Write a sequence for this structure.
């Protein structure tokens, strides 16, 4: 499949609704990584900025706080509706329900940004080539995407629990659209090069992330987003309750007075030309 129809359907269904309901926890989880990426992007007053995969608008609000003219784009209508609500008093920030991989652009943006929004393209080379058309000649693409699951125990540990509960499940294609499709640094650089970017810089970014203020909040998040939520959708009842219990036990060693904290690792990518 070379179009994003599956992702569009997915993010306009229960996944998008769950994201809207849990975005305060998600924003807090991602903040240590987001802060570095937003600072590196350095959006300035009057600049035109495209925020790809803007979700519920948190990054767009941050990018626009110094007066940049920000347009957030996302395929999820529920998330864009929430983003518009949050930015209702910010005339320099607008949102659009659109597929960034195929949307037509004018080459007048100084910055294209994304926080974990570019890993879901069915054809990543074509998608990045299209996004590149939004940039003016000396514009920059700045984004963060996840490194491998093994470098991200916050997702790998619950994932291992679920895998052990269904050992017959076929392993996922690591290059299929999904959170870790750009985890391989070499493949990531190759995709951007083939999309037409002349300069590609990939830096490792590692931070401690907070999955919840306490175990109850962390488990509420796990039930809605990630491997446990997928398992629960197919395994209600006793099997689901067992999975919840085992994920909670696996996460218990990471409880601290500051919340449930685990390491996260992303690539901070800058591309131009």
């Amino acid at each position: 499949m070379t179009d994003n129809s599956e992702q569009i359907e997915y993010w306009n269904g229960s996944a998008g609704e769950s994201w809207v309901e849990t975005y305060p926890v998600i924003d807090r989880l991602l903040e240590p990584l987001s802060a570095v990426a937003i600072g590196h992007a350095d959006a300035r007053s009057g600049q035109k900025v495209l925020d790809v995969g803007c979700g519920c608008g948190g990054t767009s609000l941050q990018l626009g706080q110094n007066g940049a003219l920000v347009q957030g784009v996302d395929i999820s209508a529920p998330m864009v509706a929430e983003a518009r609500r949050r930015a209702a008093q910010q005339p320099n920030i607008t949102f659009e329900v659109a597929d960034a991989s195929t949307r037509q652009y004018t080459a007048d943006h100084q910055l294209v940004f994304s926080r974990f929004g570019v890993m879901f393209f069915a054809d990543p080379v074509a998608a990045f080539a299209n996004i590149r058309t939004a940039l003016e000649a000396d514009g920059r693409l700045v984004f963060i995407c996840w490194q491998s699951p093994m470098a991200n125990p916050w997702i790998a540990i619950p994932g291992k629990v679920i895998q052990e509960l269904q050992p017959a499940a076929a392993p996922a294609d690591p290059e299929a659209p999904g959170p870790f499709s750009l985890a391989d640094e070499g493949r990531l650089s190759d995709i951007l090069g083939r999309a037409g970017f002349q300069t590609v810089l990939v830096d490792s970014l590692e931070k401690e992330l907070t999955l919840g203020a306490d175990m109850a909040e962390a488990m509420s998040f796990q039930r809605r987003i990630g491997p446990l939520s997928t398992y629960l959708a197919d395994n209600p009842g006793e099997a689901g309750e067992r999975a919840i219990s085992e994920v909670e036990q696996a996460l218990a060693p990471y409880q601290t007075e500051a919340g449930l904290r685990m390491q996260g690792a992303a690539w901070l990518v800058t591309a131009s030309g």
Q: What stands out?
A: Residues 125 and 242 are 41 Å apart (CA to CA). Residues 5-272 form a domain with the Rossmann fold fold (CATH 3.40.50.150).
